[in-house]
Amino acid sequence: MTWKTVADTLTATPGETLTLKGWVRTRRDSKADGGLCFIALHDGTSHDAIQVVAKAAGDDALANYDEVNKLTTGCSIEADGLLVESQGKGQSVELVASEIRIIGLVDDPDTYPVPQKRHTFEYLREQAHLRVRTNTFGAVARVRHALAMSIHRFFDEQDFYWVHTPIITGSDCEGAGQMFRVSTLDAMNAPSADDGSCDFDKDFFGKETHLTVSGQLNVETYCSALSRVYTFGPTFRAENSNTSRHLAEFWMIEPEIAFADLAANADLAEAMLKFVLADLLQRRADDMAFFDLRIEKGLIERLKHVIETPFKRLPYTEAIAILEKAQGKAKFEYPVKWGLDLQSEHERYLTEKHFKAPVILINYPKDIKAFYMRVNDPGTDGAPGDTVAAMDVLVPGIGEIIGGSQREERLDVLDQRINEMGLNIDDYWWYRDMRKYGTVPHAGFGLGFERLIQFATGMANIRDVIPFPRAPRQAEF
RNA sequence: UCCCCGAUAGCUCAAUGGUAGAGCGAGCGGCUGUUAACCGCUAGGUUGUAGGUUCGAGUCCUACUCGGGGAGCCA
Hints:
This protein is α+β, with helices and mostly antiparallel strands. The protein is built from 13 helices and 17 strands. α1 (6-10) links the parallel β1 and β2. α4 (135-157) packs across α13 and α6 (262-283) packs antiparallel against α8 (299-308). The longest helix has 23 residues, at 135-157. The structure holds one RNA strand of 75 nucleotides.
């Protein structure tokens, strides 16, 4: 007998005999026809369960019907049987079982942590090893996979190479926040250097090392030979951030393109978002319909709007003018002034109220952005001060989903920026080499993978779109 | 890190300072080709931890722990 997945079985033609293997989602019984029960069986391959019918009497009577009729949510079984058109409403096909093998029972149904009832996401976070058995987290897992594959497909079709940048980094100059130290030294008995500080020369790598906060500086070197590259992997931030949009361990996508300016970078970001969202709606229509129904009403319409609408491109300087005009009625908590960074409330006003569409903000003041961003010509956009070729992609509901820039390819300007910001120029020797040996204009951006999943599913808390979230004081599982 | 809110049955929540309850889930029974089923019965509690006030504390006070929402930082 052929073992088939639930997904394949749901679309198969009745008349086939086959085997299903999975976990019981629900069981209902009836005294009709001499006794029968209905098992909703899941194996994760589709959003919908398949109905397995077990009978106590007649030709299809099961020898172990009494045991089968005691199955509870979470039990694992194998079922052989004939696929038939369903007599009941709610499904088109069902499996009439000829044999059901009970593989694993649930010890105590009364204390099974995820019975078939409503649970809060807060509670399910404490049951991270079991929450994937629920509709919502099964759907999140499938969508997460679909988006990851879609991102790889998009870049592969556009002749990008996936570059595996290191997770352990010896650079302390990535400049994107607090880092986690990687060490094999005994924390209780660390060796001291002559000046009393920790002697990292005795550590595994012979120097201080950390978990990466970004693969950007590394991937820029590959860009300077392979033209179109991207990273997709975990990154780590030791920031004490306790929000629904931050994790200590998250996945990031960072493309980098050579012979490209900020406009090409924005084009890439917009094309990528539109591609993966359209691909998702097509490939995971079942799960997306669920999110639309149960998590965020109108989700699919919102995503279609994003796919069809050109992203609004707006210089920072013009955004400030719009926000200053709106200040009276919008009642912003924080001041709006050229030279200050935009707050969440400002970004959300622009994308949710003013334009009601994704917005790509470009050309930010130099002083609020990183050293590696390319300095614009004076007077760009009529700005009253110096700007850099930075961009942020803002989307309704999430705010900033992408941050990127054209990189500074001129060595003299880059050095000046490193010095201005008080950074140690020696730390950047290999990064500066890119500007000495065949420098080219290039640009790239970072996309937080979990934020993309939030945007695509409507899930409110980022801890619910990664299997085992890491956040301050949270590393269980 | 800052500001607010919360912690009571397996889960979600009630309970003027005075005998801790309900819904869901679970178990048993009834009904039914069932499917958020329906009807009945039953079990289930050191009220987050440690102190304090009081004749008496789930309730008031203090500290701590954990969780949530918002802000900052950012992706």
